Amino acid sequence: MAEPVCDDLKQILPLELHIFTFQSSYYSTSQGRKKLKQAEEEIKELASIRHPNLVSVFAVKLNLPQSNNPAQLIVLMEQAPAITLQDVLGDSHSLREDRATQYLTQTLKALNAIHTRNLVHRGITARCIGLATDHNNPSQKIIKLGKAVFYTQLLDLHRSNSFGHHIPPVPDEAPIGDGWLSRDVKNESALFYTRRRDIHAVGVVLLQMLMGLDVIERFSDVNAAIHACVYLSSHPLSLLTDWHVASISPVMARMATSMLVDTKKNGISCMSLLSELAAAHISESDLFRTPAPNRAIPIVISSTSREHLVIVLLLKRFQIPTHPCRACTMARLRSTSSHRELSGLAMRVGGKTTGRSSNCW
Question: How many domains does the chain have?
Fold first, then answer.
């Protein structure tokens, strides 16, 4: 890491210098050097892009010595944020829909800047989406899309032709069900990268933001996950039996479907998705005001708020009279012998209660 000289300390941008050494004899052959030159050309094109939501690359240099010395690829770039979306979702499981919408919009804008230069990202996941402080609004976080273009490209090169004994093999990625694979991977190859595949990867991240990182494990395919969210929007009492499914708005359901479900349409792009988001006029007030008919009920991840919501739904659904004493109300829920399943649910959300006061009944 290095810091450039700058008169304004507030404008100092931490940098990273990456040096990739290719000791394998393959990269001294004409075919190996050709692949390295292709990688260098793409990184040069990436270095010409400046976007607030994209980790910047400032310079690249490929050294191809004529002697027996190994080739080296040197990349100078902006330091990636220390916190990633993967970290945030690991702690909070999911995000509010308004926050997920902001992050989706910023990610699509950064990806559009890449696609405009006829490049593809190749490996969008929650791990490569960093969260940085917005200098214009320090209380807010902004997306920084990293590991673009060359990161996955170099990993693929190392898998097929190792850089040398000094670098360990790339660990195998966790298997992903066929129902979550993009059509490019299904119909072509795992090494076939397109703009459409990038957008599919963003769609997976969108559902992870709304439903948790394990959404690809809990549901067999994309359609099942989206259907579960849409069903919950129309059946809010399903909250009582499935604590890990979040309802999403119709707009988000359409966005996820557009990005993830294969159709005959080939016109989908980052710009078309951004236009759809802009046309929907999504805002926090729209998403989280008192639900109207056919509007999704938002799920607040806070356990206290979740417990309160479930208790209110239980009382309303089964017409159980409330009581000023919360412990007594929970006791009435648990003692509802005609609804044994309800009693179990009440025990789960209510926890243990202490003795009630003498004037409770």
Answer: 2
